[in-house]
Amino acid sequence: MIEIEQTGSFARTLSWLHFLNRWDVRKTLEKYALQGLEALQAATPVKSGKTAQSWEYKIDISTNQVVIEWYNTNENKGVPIAIILQYGHGTGTGGYVRGIDYINPAMRPIFDSIADELFQEVMSA
């Protein structure tokens, strides 16, 4: 036979759970989504400026997860320009243009800030 005995109060746990139930995480995510958008626009290599101005984002909140998605709508003949700038591409004459890692360095501080702030918000409840 297993017996469990509990003493004390669940008041702090219940308070924290009520906070999580009322918490509007969208405001925090919106702030960082905009910062990420600005970081991507500033970091994107510029020839015409079209790729830099083609960054967008969307926020998806479901019961199991929260997602910020940044994406770029600039394409040339179905080829996403932001991706070939990042990873490189072959040319029509057999050459190769090396990619420039501009996305990861631009987004790393944003990811770190999101993690820090969300952790602080949850722990301060």
Describe the structure.
There is one protein chain. With 125 residues, the protein is of the alpha+beta class. The protein has one domain (24-123). It is built from four helices and six strands, in the order ααββββαββα. The chain has a two-stranded antiparallel sheet. A two-stranded antiparallel ribbon has the order 3-4. The longest helix is centred in the C-terminal third of the chain and has 21 residues, at 103-123. The mean pLDDT is 90.
Overall spatial form: elongated
**How are the strands of the biggest sheet laid out side by side?**
1-2
Please provide the count of β strands.
6
Overall mean pLDDT score? Answer: 90
Distance, first to last CA: 37 Å
Q: Give the number of domains.
A: 1
The value of Rg in angstroms is 22 Å
Largest sheet: 2 strands, antiparallel
What is the helix/strand order? HHEEEEHEEH
> What is the SS-derived class?
alpha+beta
Unreliable stretches (pLDDT < 50, length at least 5) are none
What percentage of residues falls in helices of 4 or more residues? 40-55%
Total number of helical segments? Answer: 4
Strand content: 15-25%
Summary tags:
two-stranded antiparallel sheet; 19% strand; alpha+beta; 125 residues
Layout of secondary structure:
Layout: H1 11-22, H2 25-43, E1 55-61, E2 66-72, E3 75-76, E4 79-80, H3 81-87, E5 88-90, E6 96-98, H4 103-123
Antiparallel strand pairs: 1-2, 3-4, 5-6
Helix pairs in contact: 2-4
